[in-house]
């Protein structure tokens, strides 16, 4: 999610699943209603079933933007699968240095002795600590500054799996709620690379290295599948975790979803709302991949981890609903635009719309990976570096390409916020540049992630400042009329009102909610 990652084009905090359970909303199964634990009239949605797609949610009536659909605490929570160590209590970053505080009983790194997640059911519990403590040599004591990223990743991957398996004994009812989720074990078994990874890194490690011989291998694989298919990545204020929720996993997938979700930084509860108007009987959807990635990368991400090829309206459109965020400049004629000929054919060719030039998908992926690596090598606060990146690839990628949008979004956030580039000391040219990037980015967000979405609220908040400052400068220097000044002030008010309305839906204590309150305060000071 933007604001929580170094660069927002990485696959972010969205839950993923497969075609046998959740599905694309543009396909029309014949549904059969499923009984709900609450009276149907009390819910804004109902659960339906299809032989093709399994269970999914549809609106039980017309829903307006911002309606709360689901709020629920996690059934299970644990660290993300990453080479970056985190505290097992609060999921904030820690180091593996010798002076890092560690749990005295099990030796796993913690943020400190007063961590709010110690002995908490959503954090580092006594049961977990005892299990790790009895296996220090094969677990916590391996987490030193000599451990490479792969070893760190492998150990942290085990944490949530172990937590779920511990529920078998300590909370069987909760375990059963998880066990009923789809795992697609048989499909995963056919994927030799995926199956072997979990067999070696998880099953054998738990049963042999950790001497948990009583764990049935099949059940461990089942839990691994459930996590891959159904988990959400969440995080606020520096923490980063993955979670399983009781019913949020039932939402279908679409690359232009009609819901948005966030999480409470204290309870880790998910809050899922409609982001725009939803018709009665329309499927409720979210995006499992990051919305502002291109089709090739989104589909590849979902298939590799979630075993399905997305076939939604956006994926089927070479122009991605008019956003063109996968388009390249033709390297042959330099005038045309290169797009996928058949976007739903992952290995299909890409072709110029003005000359005979074609490009294979493998060559294209190599090019995108190289450019992405170049972007990732730039420090997130390096304004000159990001500007050079935009110049370097402006004749390779079309202006709305997702990799250029990623750099522009970073610039939207840091222009006006870091030393040497604070608003009072910025040149009119730099302020204009920030405004331009914000407008370009907002135009794409309005297509791909419209309505009451966090990303839209954040970018509107960023846009209001340069519009206001440039209006004041223009008025003071006699460059604009009073009528034009008033027009720009009205735009500032509208930007602040919309960002307030969106960001104040975020949980108290989150960075986004604080920005929403700042927008509200600015409106009060303007007399609005």
TrEMBL record:
Molecular function terms, GO-annotated: N-methyltransferase activity; protein methyltransferase activity; S-adenosylmethionine-dependent methyltransferase activity
Which residue stretches belong to region Disordered? Answer: 1-43
Q: Which residues are listed as membrane-spanning? A: none
Compositional bias of kind Basic residues:
1-13
Tell me the ranges covered by the SET domain, including all copies: 43-289
Where is there biased composition of kind Basic and acidic residues?
23-33
Indicate what this protein is called per its UniProt record: SET domain-containing protein SmydA-8
Q: Which organism is it from?
A: Drosophila kikkawai (Fruit fly)
């Amino acid at each position: 999610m933007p604001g929580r990652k170094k660069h927002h084009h990485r696959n972010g905090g969205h839950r993923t699943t497969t075609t046998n359970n959740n599905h694309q909303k543009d396909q029309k199964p014949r549904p059969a209603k499923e009984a709900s634990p609450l009276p149907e009239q009390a819910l804004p949605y109902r659960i339906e079933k299809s032989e093709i797609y399994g269970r999914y949610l549809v609106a039980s009536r017309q829903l307006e933007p911002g309606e709360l659909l689901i709020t629920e605490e996690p059934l299970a929570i644990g660290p993300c699968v990453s080479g970056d160590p985190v505290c097992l209590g609060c999921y904030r970053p820690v180091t593996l240095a010798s002076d890092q505080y560690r749990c005295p009983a099990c030796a796993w790194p913690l943020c400190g002795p007063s961590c709010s997640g110690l002995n908490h059911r959503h954090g580092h519990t006594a049961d977990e600590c005892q299990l790790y403590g009895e296996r220090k040599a094969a677990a916590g004591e391996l987490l030193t500054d000599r451990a490479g990223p792969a070893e760190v990743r492998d150990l942290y991957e085990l944490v949530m799996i172990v937590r779920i398996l511990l529920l078998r004994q300590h909370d069987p009812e909760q375990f059963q709620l998880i066990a009923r989720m789809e795992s697609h074990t048989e499909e995963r078994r056919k994927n030799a690379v995926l199956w072997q990874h979990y067999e070696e890194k998880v099953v054998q490690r738990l049963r042999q290295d950790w001497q948990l011989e009583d764990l049935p291998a099949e059940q461990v694989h089942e839990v691994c599948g459930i996590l891959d298919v159904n988990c959400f990545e969440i995080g606020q204020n520096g923490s980063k975790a993955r979670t399983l929720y009781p019913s949020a996993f039932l939402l279908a997938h679409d690359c232009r979803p009609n819901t948005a979700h966030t999480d409470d930084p204290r309870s880790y509860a998910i809050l899922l709302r409609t982001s725009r108007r939803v018709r009665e009987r329309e499927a409720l959807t979210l995006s499992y991949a990051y919305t502002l990635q291109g089709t090739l990368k989104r589909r590849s991400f979902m298939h590799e981890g979630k075993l399905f090829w997305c076939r939604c309206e956006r994926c089927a459109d070479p122009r991605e609903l008019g956003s063109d965020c996968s388009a390249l400049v033709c390297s042959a004629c330099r005038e045309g635009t290169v797009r996928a000929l058949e976007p739903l054919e992952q290995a299909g060719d890409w072709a110029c719309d003005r000359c005979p030039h074609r490009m294979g998908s493998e060559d294209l992926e190599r090019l995108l990976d190289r450019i992405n690596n170049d972007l990732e090598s730039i420090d997130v606060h390096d304004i000159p570096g990001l500007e050079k990146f935009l110049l370097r690839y402006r004749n390779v990628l079309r202006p709305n390409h997702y990799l250029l949008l990623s750099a522009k979004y970073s610039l939207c956030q840091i222009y006006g916020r870091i030393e040497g580039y604070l608003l009072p000391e910025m040149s009119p040219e730099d302020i204009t540049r920030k405004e331009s990037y914000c407008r370009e980015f907002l135009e794409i967000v309005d297509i791909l992630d419209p309505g009451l979405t966090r990303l839209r609220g954040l970018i509107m908040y960023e846009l209001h400042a340069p519009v206001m400052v440039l209006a004041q400068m223009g008025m003071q220097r006699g460059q604009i009329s009073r009528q034009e000044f008033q027009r720009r002030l009205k735009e500032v008010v509208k930007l602040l009102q919309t960002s307030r309305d969106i960001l104040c839906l975020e949980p108290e204590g989150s960075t986004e909610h604080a920005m929403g309150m700042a927008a509200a305060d600015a409106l009060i000071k303007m007399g609005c």
